[in-house]
Amino acid sequence: MKCFLRAPMMALLAAHCAALCSLGCVELAGPTDDPMSPSSAVATLTPPSAPGAASAQVIEGVNFDPTEAIRVLDYVNHATLEELDIGAGIDVRAAKSIVAAQPIANLQELGGLYFVGTVTLEQLKAAALADEAGKTLAGQPTLNTAGQRAI
Known about the structure:
disordered C terminus; two-stranded antiparallel sheet; mainly alpha; disordered N terminus
C-alpha cells in the first residue's frame, strides 16, 4: 500500500487506529485492489459489526468507557508538556514521560508509563473530558459572554 503522508503523521494515525481497534470501537476495512485509487492510501474506519462490542476498561483502578478512552488518548497524544503539567495538573514527571512516549497507542501503554498511576489517570480523564466539553464540532473553543473559554 502506498501512502503519501509523512512518517510522524503516519505514526500518530497508526496509534489512533490501534487505540480505536483495541477498544472495539471500529474495525479497519482494507484498501481497494486498485493501487491508484485514493482510497487505497488510507484504510477506512467502519463501525464494529457486533453491537456492544466496545466495553469499559479499568486501568490502574480507573474506569474508562470507550468514549472516555478515545478522548484521553487523543488528549495525551496532542498535549504539550505545559498543557499536561499546568492544564491537566499532573506531576511534571508524568507529563515528561507522556510527551516522550507520544504517540501512545492505548490506555495500557499510558498506564505503564513512569509516574502515571491512579491519580494521574483520573486527572487526565477529567482534563480530556473538560477539554472536549470546551470545543465545538469544528474543534474551536467555545467562549462565554466575557470572552473566556467555557468549561
